[in-house]
Design a protein that fits this description.
The chain is an alpha/beta fold. It has a single domain, classed as Spore Coat Polysaccharide Biosynthesis Protein SpsA, Chain A (Alpha-Beta Complex), CATH 3.90.550.10. The strands form two sheets. The chain has an eight-stranded mixed sheet. The protein has a two-stranded antiparallel ribbon with strand order 4-8. Helix 1 links the parallel strand 1 and strand 2. The two termini are 25 Å apart.
Length: 206
């Protein structure tokens, strides 16, 4: 089992992928004295359906067993973040949001292996958005705390959907799951797999 794996959901952003990997290959060695072993897993969605960040993160966790998972958006480049676990919580939210000021659980989030399995992983049914809100409501129902330790990230520019808030998805996110453990029902196929140093590439469909 790895010590830490940065899991990056990805599709159709080759410039961001190049910039992210170049930045992380230079950045990770600078924090290596505090992180004994840190790997990166790029999980690419190959189909043309709406992007399913939730299932891609679950796949990364299933394929790369680690003591800690760092769920990391590809457009977030760390400027000052050591990805250090805490003695006070097993989930740490490293990135703040200018859009959602309370209970934000996106961008860059660390889970310990045991608590990620206890949470059941992300809800596989969330295409497009709101998977992070669903996870936060799920954690509250399970009484699993999240520690906010906001650090500095540079956010790469990309075209955003103008409909940042969807009331129907917000309501859906608050409902109790019909199947709590989404990791056990995370169906997918690996189309391609390769390893380059500390970076694993997975191309999947589902």
């Amino acid at each position: 089992m790895n010590y830490q794996t940065i899991i990056v959901p990805y599709r159709n952003r080759p410039q961001h992928l190049t910039a992210f990997l170049a930045h992380m290959r230079a950045y990770i060695p600078s924090i290596s004295p505090t992180i004994p072993d840190i790997n990166i897993c790029i999980v690419e969605q190959s189909d043309v359906r709406l992007f399913n960040r939730a299932r891609l993160l679950n796949i990364g966790a299933l394929e790369c067993p680690s003591a800690y998972y760092i769920m990391h958006d590809i457009d977030m480049l760390p400027i000052d973040c050591h990805y250090t676990p805490s003695m006070h919580a097993e989930i740490i939210q490293f990135a703040a949001s200018k859009i959602q000021l309370k209970d934000y659980l996106g961008g860059v989030t660390m889970f310990s292996h045991p608590v990620f399995w206890k949470s059941g992983g992300y809800n596989n049914d969330y295409f497009h958005r709101a998977e992070d809100n669903e996870m936060m409501f799920n954690l509250k129902q399970l009484r699993i705390p999240v520690l906010n330790e906001f650090y500095q990230f540079k956010q790469l520019q990309h075209k955003r959907d103008p409909n940042e808030f969807n009331a129907a998805l917000w309501d859906k996110a608050q409902q109790k799951r019909s199947k709590q453990n989404q990791l056990l029902c995370c169906a997918y196929n690996i189309i391609h797999k390769s390893v380059d140093g500390n970076v694993m590439y997975l191309k999947v469909d589902f």
